[in-house]
From TrEMBL:
This is NAD(P)/FAD-dependent oxidoreductase. Disulfide bonds join C44-C49. FAD binds at K53, G116, T146, G147, S148, D310. The keyword Flavoprotein applies. InterPro entries: Class-I_Pyr_Nuc-Dis_Oxidored, FAD/NAD-bd_sf, FAD/NAD-binding_dom, FAD/NAD-linked_Rdtase_dimer_sf, Pyr_nuc-diS_OxRdtase, Pyr_nucl-diS_OxRdtase_dimer. It comes from Streptomyces beijiangensis. One of its GO terms (molecular function) is flavin adenine dinucleotide binding.
């Protein structure tokens, strides 16, 4: 290996999370290097958030337009699949990372391409694609921001097919004639929405009793209803026993003895941390494990190792990972400069409190699902004394103007002891843009009596806030 090169901070992984850590530490005056084995910009930029939303946007726009009088008759034809995929390719930068590499260079962060592994305390060994070796040492910290990967189940016959994961589903160059999707979480329902609209016959195979199991039950029910109306075959309470590729495609055999035939099969069945080959064993940690951290994202039991984003398993969402990166960057800089952290300040710059209390998420299906904070089940499991307040979104004036035949539902979870909102879920067209108001109310712990004075504009879908508050007061 070459002689070691020293930096204040070394970051493993140049996805959105690693980029944000590097940005924050570099802005604080700390020399920073980033190691990346694939594309700078990571999963989100090329195989997840960005390409999936580029695919979904035309689908949702058409669905909205079909509900507007005077416009609906103009958008009854099929989507131009070629144009939709070209739109996706553009937003995925045609899977080239020149722009993001240039950004790293512009902020003074050194990029090392190749596979990085911890090499003992505060040391990282990098093997570049051409076999060159580098050793990087950190004066202060090493940050693990390597993200997560899709998990494939252990099934008989899996080695006879080339299954899709989220990567293939978001980067495919044509719509398969028949697509089976195993799993009913966010990836499953979003990809069902996309490929059904682009011409695939979609069959969803879901082990549980509904879609979107981590959200309020009505969310999954409304999405399942809409997918079925669009032509998808949504089956719940079923499990896959085996798969096999034959002359007619992929035969998926179910545990109940039934079968489905497909041209492609997408497994959307969970994620695992990309920590199996990054040298965790050299610092006393278990390879392939999720890394437990405190609220500053410092790995438990360490004073020099941080884990930010998916790898710490707190919240597997890009925006929360970037939030953690800002928190970690501030904490790393403060500790490097020997500035005392206010460990008791739960809403301070050095604590990722929102990961516990105010996580927002949007599922870009038709209808959209938007949630922040806790579900009713989560609040009750946490021991809170709460009340769920429900309202039919179709009764809101702005919803009816937004779309003919608007269908949707809203729920607000109120902590009765503190008289604050601790959770909110909205389902319906256009509700994603409602969500930040809920996030602010939850993160800010705004008292119900004060929310009365946040007057929603008329006639907008946001008027649902007034209706929820009126329902709560009775």
């Amino acid at each position: 290996m070459t002689d070691a090169t020293e930096y204040d901070v070394v970051v493993l992984g140049a996805g959105p999370v690693g980029e944000n850590v590097a940005d924050r530490t570099r802005a604080a005056g700390l020399s920073t290097a980033v190691v990346e084995s694939e594309l700078v910009g990571g999963e989100c930029s090329y195989w997840a958030c960005i390409p999936s939303k580029a695919l979904l946007r035309p689908v949702i726009a058409r669905a909205d337009a079909r509900r507007v009088p005077g416009l609906s008759q103009s958008v009854q034809g099929p989507l131009d699949a070629h144009a939709v995929l070209a739109h996706r390719d553009y937003y995925a930068s045609h899977w080239k990372d020149d722009g993001q590499v240039g950004w790293l260079d512009s902020i003074g962060v050194d990029l090392y391409r190749g596979h990085g592994r911890l090499y003992g305390t505060k040391m990282v060994a990098v093997t570049s694609p051409d076999g060159e070796h580098h050793v990087l040492t950190a004066r202060h910290v090493v940050v693990v921001a390597t993200g997560s990967r899709a998990v494939l189940p252990t099934l008989p016959g899996l080695d006879t097919i080339t299954p899709w994961t989220s990567r293939e589903a978001t980067s495919a160059q044509q719509a398969p004639g028949r697509l089976v999707i195993v799993g009913g979480g966010v990836v499953g329902v979003e990809m069902a929405t996309v490929w059904q609209a682009l011409g695939s016959q979609v069959t969803m195979l879901v082990r549980g009793d509904g879609l979107l199991p981590k959200m309020e039950p009505f969310a999954g029910s409304l999405v399942a209803e809409a997918l079925a109306e669009a032509g998808a075959d949504v089956r719940t309470g079923v499990s896959v026993a085996s798969v096999e590729r034959g002359a007619d495609g992929i035969t998926v055999t179910l545990e109940d003895g039934g079968s489905v035939t497909a041209d492609e099969i997408l497994f959307a069945t969970g994620r695992a941390p990309r920590t199996d080959d990054i040298g965790l064993d050299t610092v006393g940690l278990e390879p392939g494990s999720w890394l437990s951290v405190d609220d500053s994202c410092r790995v438990d039991g360490s004073n020099w190792l941080y884990a930010v984003g998916d790898v710490n398993h707190r919240v597997l969402l890009t925006h929360q990972g970037k939030y953690q990166a800002r928190v970690a960057g501030a904490a790393i800089a403060a500790r490097a400069q020997q500035v005392p952290l206010l460990e008791t300040d739960r809403w301070g710059a050095h604590a990722a409190t929102a990961d516990h209390d105010a996580v927002p998420q949007v599922v870009f299906t038709d209808p959209e699902v938007a949630s922040a904070g806790r579900t009713l089940a989560e609040a009750e499991a946490a021991g809170l004394r709460v009340r769920a307040v429900d309202y039919d979104l179709s009764s809101v004036s702005g919803a009816g103007l937004y779309a003919d035949g608007y269908r949707g539902h809203a729920r607000m979870i109120v902590d009765l002891d503190r008289e604050i909102v601790v959770g909110a879920t909205f389902v319906g067209p256009g509700v994603g843009e409602l969500l930040h108001s809920a996030t602010v109310a939850i993160a800010g712990e705004v008292p119900i009596e004060r929310l009365w004075h946040a007057v929603p504009a008329f006639p907008t879908i946001s008027e649902v806030w007034l209706r929820l508050l009126e329902t709560y007061r009775g």
